[in-house]
Every structure is written in C-alpha cells, then in structure tokens.
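Let us practice reading a record.
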Amino acid sequence: MRLSTVILPVRRWHEGGREQWQRAEQLGFHTAYTYDHLSWRTFRDGPWFGAVPTLTAAAASTDRLRLGTLVTSPNFRHPVTLAKDLITLDDVSGGRITLGIGAGGNGFDATTLLKSGQEPWTPRERADHFAEFVPLLDRLLTEPVVTHEGTHYSATEARNIPGCVQRPRLPFAVAATGPRGLKLAARHGQAWVTTGDPRLFESGTPGQSLEAIRGQIGKLGAACAEIGRDASELDKIFLTGFTPDRPLDSIDAFVDFAGRHFALGITEIVIHAPIPDSDFATDVKVFERIAMEGLAQLG
C-alpha cells in the first residue's frame, strides 16, 4: 500500500515550487509525480513549467522521495532525446525516477507542434506511435548503442552511456485501458496506471467507478496471461481526481476510498497536491493529514 502525490508544475521554483517538493518528502509520500505537458486544460493561460527540468530541480532538493511523470507521451516527445534526458535525470536523482508513460490525448500537446491545416493524430495513430515508442525507449535505456528504422521513429547509432542508475533501466508505469496499451504494459511495464473510466466522471457513481476499475484490472491480468507473465508483478497505480469519488473531503472519506481500491488490487494511490482556485483546491490541512495518517488508519 503506497500513497503518492502529483505536484502540477505551476509555481515558480523560488516562489514556493522548491518548498512544495520538499514538503512532499517531509509528509512521507512514496512518490511525487508531475504532469509532462506543454500546457494543460484550465492552466493553459497561466504558469506551466517543463517536467524534466522541474524533476531535476526536485531531485537536487530532496533525498529519499521517488520522482516521476504522470504521464509522458509521444505527443511531443521523441524516444531518443527522451532517453538521454531520463538517463541524466536518473543519475542526478541517484536512481529515484519512475517514468509514467501513455499514448497521450487530443489536448494542447497534440496540436501545439502542428503546421497550419495539419490534423492531430487520430486515436489509432496515437496507439500506433505508442506501440513503437515504448519498445524503442526500452532499448534506448538498456542498450549502449541502438539503431532503429521504424514507421514513426528512427535512431542511428544512438548512444546512451553509461545507462540508468537503476538496472536494467528505470521503471515504466504504463497508462493504458485499451487492448494495445495493456499489452504494452504487460510486456514492458513495472507498473500500470489508470485514472478510472472518464465516462463516469460527471454522471457515474463511486460504485460504478469501482466496478470499471475492477474490469480494467481483469483485462490487465488477461494481457499478462497471454505472454506468461504474472500480473501481480506489476504495481497498479490509481491517479485520482477523474472519477465521481471525493476522497480528499476528509480523512474518513479517504480511508474508506483507499480501502475499497486496495481491496481491488490497487497498490498505489496518487492524490493531487492542493492548488487554490482550481479543480484541485483541496484543504491543505486535510491533504496533509491524509498524507501522514491515511494509510495507517487502514490498519
């Protein structure tokens, strides 16, 4: 049972940014993640900093806290340059990095780099890129020299020496609910990530959300079984905030919520750090009490 947090990169480093990551370590979170976007939803017209530099600064400002992305995607990343950044970040952090990775969506990341009149990738095209991106990144992080000529990506004698501090590479937490993504999680992931079923966010119930996640875990198990892998080898990470549940209303609400999801097989729950005047405007005192007492109250 692990409890982690997401710190959105919206604060200047010297105006509360550093302290927020250090506080996450003091509160005892297992991992502090950040989003890897060019901009995101309602935060588009406000401050939004890059994930890799933010995590590098966080690594230099903490000692024990694991760090990572939820999630990086092919929308604006190339596996060759990403691998170089990740190896450096893993080195700076002393081997405390987890790469959350997903196919990406159709938001600002999908359109910012497009030429005028160019259409963003369709869901099938995103899945096609992801299916090539993940195994190539796996090779780039584990092999000293990689050459690859694929449909979407190329690498010519790409060198990544000395490789990751974590061996054979830093862990992948693969966000997926569709069949192709789940196969990638089963083959390449050390963890699997879900946000639940987004269709239930506005009109569903907590019970329906729980059953949807139960179904997703079952499909992950089937994908693992197809390749002869035990699904229990994968951590199962639930990024909260996108289901009908309200686990941050109180410590009791969190304990009830966490207990039900751990019983399903979820091994790590991730909650958003408070951001005033936003969808994540949680009471700071409740948030910190959950961080310090929530898991202990599960018994």
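A brief commentary: Helices lie at 13-26, 51-61, 79-93, 123-142, 179-188, 206-226, 251-264, 284-293.
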